[in-house]
């Protein structure tokens, strides 16, 4: 927190209201492609005490496990620690399988795609056996991919074709799609920043954030139809400190209209009919900043749409529905006049 405080003085913080990819090196030796440089799914198996992890809702002790990568006819076993994480999806009333975090043993990961990785969030179906919940995982993965088409200041992700094995033997092996998310410290290092730890119940002033980052995050959230975030409060947004300026990096999109989870409901204070109804929560910006940010999104249109059009893990109907939803956004920002009316008229007055 020191550098941000140094650049802005005493901040007025206040309480808020309630690919298994590979390549070949010398002599044809197989060399792993770093985890986040490929979009090809890695084929993997996670063995751990899943029965215990399903019960770890009020506490999250580390459970030993093994992550095995299956690549080129060979198996690469990596020692990991597994624990539960999250909030909404951690509640057994909402999800029968909790979200997980895996800590990678560095020595056993050498020579694999997980070399250099440390503490990764793992996203998988929270109701195994329901194909519609597998689709939610793929859609949330594609949201992260879509944001990376617009900005490098986003989390990297990697898809996994994962088999879950219960080391306790209480349940049968389950195969389902999953993905891992770049660690926040690795994200910060990649962007030449450090993670900013915001005290619970506090918020930063709007002016603490770099304007392009601030608006890019807001427009990205509007694009995917996600009102469940706050940059100044660090809610579903990772705050980074880059040379004394805050950078907002969004995450967690299962309550967005683009993912459209069956359990997702819009925040009641916005009076939205459904999560599919977009609501802009960005701050009012200089028109020059607005134009620059919207230009980025226009330039990314085909890359974003192609990622969804070509993802065969989604059923045709779900893929077409998502593409239509995104096309509505891109059509709305097609001209400066239409876009600026939206983002300059419906913006919020910056906080102190």
Write down the overall geometry: globular
The oligomeric status of these chains comes to: single chain
- Largest sheet report: 7 strands, mixed, barrel
Low-confidence stretches: 1-29
Helix content class: 25-40%
What is the beta-strand fraction? 15-25%
Number of helices: 10
Distance between the termini: 18 Å
The beta-strand count equals 12
Find the structural class using helix and strand composition. Answer: alpha+beta
Number of domains: 2
Order of helices and strands: HEEEHEEEHEHEEHEHEEHHHH
Rounded Rg:
21 Å
Strand order of the biggest β-sheet? 3-4-5-6-7-9-8
Mean pLDDT: 89
Topology:
Blueprint: H1 2-8, E1 22-24, E2 30-32, E3 42-48, H2 50-55, E4 63-71, E5 74-84, E6 100-104, H3 106-109, E7 119-124, H4 131-148, E8 157-166, E9 174-181, H5 184-190, E10 194-195, H6 211-224, E11 237-242, E12 245-250, H7 287-299, H8 301-309, H9 316-332, H10 336-345
Parallel strand pairs: 3-8
Antiparallel strand pairs: 1-2, 3-4, 4-5, 5-6, 6-7, 7-9, 8-9, 10-11, 11-12
Structure at a glance:
Helix content is 30%, strand content 22%.
Attribute tags:
352 residues; 30% helix; three-stranded antiparallel sheet; alpha+beta; seven-stranded mixed beta barrel
Architecture overview:
The protein is an alpha+beta fold and 352 residues long. It has two domains: 2-10 and 192-345; 38-185, no CATH class. It contains ten helices and twelve strands. The chain has helices at 2-8, 50-55, 106-109, 131-148, 184-190, 211-224, 287-299, 301-309, 316-332, 336-345; strands at 22-24, 30-32, 42-48, 63-71, 74-84, 100-104, 119-124, 157-166, 174-181, 194-195, 237-242, 245-250. The strands form three sheets. It has a seven-stranded mixed beta barrel. It has a three-stranded antiparallel β-sheet with strand order 10-11-12. Helix 4 packs antiparallel against helix 8 and helix 7 (287-299) packs across helix 10. The longest helix is centred in the middle third of the chain and has 18 residues, at 131-148. The radius of gyration is 21 Å and the shape is globular. It starts with a helix and ends in a 7-residue tail after the last helix. Mean pLDDT is 89; it is low at 1-29.
């Amino acid at each position: 927190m020191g550098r941000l405080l140094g650049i802005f003085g005493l901040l007025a913080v206040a309480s808020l209201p309630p690919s298994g990819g590979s390549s070949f090196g010398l002599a044809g030796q197989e060399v792993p492609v770093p985890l986040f440089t490929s979009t090809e799914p890695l084929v993997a198996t996670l063995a751990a005490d899943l029965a215990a992890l399903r019960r770890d809702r009020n506490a999250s002790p580390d459970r030993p496990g093994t992550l095995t990568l299956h690549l080129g006819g060979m198996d690469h076993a990596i020692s990991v620690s597994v624990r539960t994480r999250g909030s909404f999806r951690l509640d057994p009333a909402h999800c029968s399988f909790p979200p997980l975090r895996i800590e990678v043993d560095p020595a056993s990961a050498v020579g694999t795609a997980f070399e250099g990785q440390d503490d990764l969030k793992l996203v998988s179906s929270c109701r195994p056996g329901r194909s519609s919940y597998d689709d939610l995982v793929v859609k949330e993965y594609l949201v992260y991919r879509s944001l990376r088409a617009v900005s490098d200041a986003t989390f990297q992700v990697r898809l996994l074709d994962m088999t879950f094995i219960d080391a306790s033997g209480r349940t049968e092996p389950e195969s389902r799609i999953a993905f891992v998310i770049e660690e926040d410290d690795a994200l910060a290092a990649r962007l030449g920043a450090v993670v900013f730890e915001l005290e619970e119940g506090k918020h930063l002033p709007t002016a603490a954030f770099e304007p392009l980052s601030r608006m890019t995050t807001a427009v990205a959230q509007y694009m995917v139809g996600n009102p469940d975030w706050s940059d100044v409060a660090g809610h579903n947004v990772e705050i980074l400190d880059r040379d004394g300026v805050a950078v907002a990096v969004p995450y967690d999109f299962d309550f967005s209209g683009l993912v459209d989870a069956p359990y997702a409901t819009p925040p009641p204070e916005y009076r939205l009919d459904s999560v599919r109804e977009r609501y802009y929560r960005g701050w009012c910006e200089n028109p020059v900043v607005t134009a620059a940010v919207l230009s980025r999104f226009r330039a990314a249109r085909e890359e974003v749409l192609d990622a969804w059009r070509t993802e065969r893990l989604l059923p045709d109907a779900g893929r077409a529905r998502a593409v239509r939803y995104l096309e509505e956004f891109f059509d709305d920002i097609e001209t400066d006049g239409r876009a600026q009316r939206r983002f300059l008229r419906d913006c919020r007055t910056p906080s102190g």
